[in-house]
Design brief:
single chain, alpha+beta
Length: 100
């Protein structure tokens, strides 16, 4: 069974194509549950109308499914709370001069 940290590392290989930053650092991942042999992920998008939503979610699913011991990856797309720049990693906020 993979650890939550291993799942995060796979998610960090998925980039928002418009911003060019991985979706984990952007703060788009709200929750990860590893329940052998399944992984449940709650995530959002920077914009509910994002035309790349299916592609981004598909990349997350495909990458996490590569982990040994994972049979199924379920992704729940949520918009509550809505994404905001303050949800980004501290490093990104410093780089882009975003308070918080």
């Amino acid at each position: 069974m993979p650890s939550k940290e291993e799942v995060i590392e796979k998610i960090k290989t998925v980039f928002d194509p418009h911003i060019g930053v991985d979706i984990y650092s952007l703060g788009l991942i709200y929750d990860i549950k590893v329940e052998n042999p399944n992984v449940l992920i709650n995530m959002t998008l920077t914009n509910p109308g994002c035309p790349m939503a299916k592609s981004i979610m598909g990349d997350v699913k495909q990458n996490v499914e590569k982990l040994e011991g994972v049979d199924k990856v379920e992704i729940n797309l949520v918009f509550d709370p809505p994404w905001a720049p303050t949800m980004m990693s501290d490093d990104l906020k410093k780089m882009w001069n975003i308070p918080g």
